From TrEMBL:
Membrane spanning stretches: none
Pfam families attached to this UniProt entry: HSP20
SUPFAM superfamilies reported for this sequence: HSP20-like chaperones
Family under the similarity heading: Belongs to the small heat shock protein (HSP20) family.
Residues in SHSP domain copies: 22-137
Protein name (record): Putative small heat shock protein
Annotated source species: Candidatus Nomurabacteria bacterium GW2011_GWC2_42_20
Record key words, sorted: Stress response
Record bears the keyword Transferase: no
InterPro entries attached to this UniProt entry: A-crystallin/Hsp20_dom, HSP20-like_chaperone, Small_HSP
Amino acid sequence: MAIIKWEPFIDVERFFEDFPVSSLKEIGTDLAVDVYDEGSNIIAKMNVPGVDPEKINVTVEDNMLRVSGAHEEEKEEKKKHYYHKEIRKGSFERVVSLPQLVLKDKVFAEYKNGTLFITLPKANGEESSHKVQVQVKK
């Protein structure tokens, strides 16, 4: 009887070898967020083209920024013959840790040309851990 070397991760390696590169893009890189310092504010910038601003939820809780929403589902016509269909529809969510405490009651968000800008004023002292829902302006 031959001795066979045990390789417990070989199936995982095969999975990633066969994994299409284009699928990696669909996992979440389209929800990229830029967070930067701008004087007395922290700014979060996120591209969300094609999303109705009324369907975007922005909350701040426990030093975490949460952006969620939904891409509208369009009715798929059975008459169309798609050669390639990549436009994704459905819900999305992104949570980002903030670099410092912010004044949750003064946070505001604005949607311009498919980009969401969230302004988070910096807090000097301790801030409570309550959750704040932010209204998104057009």
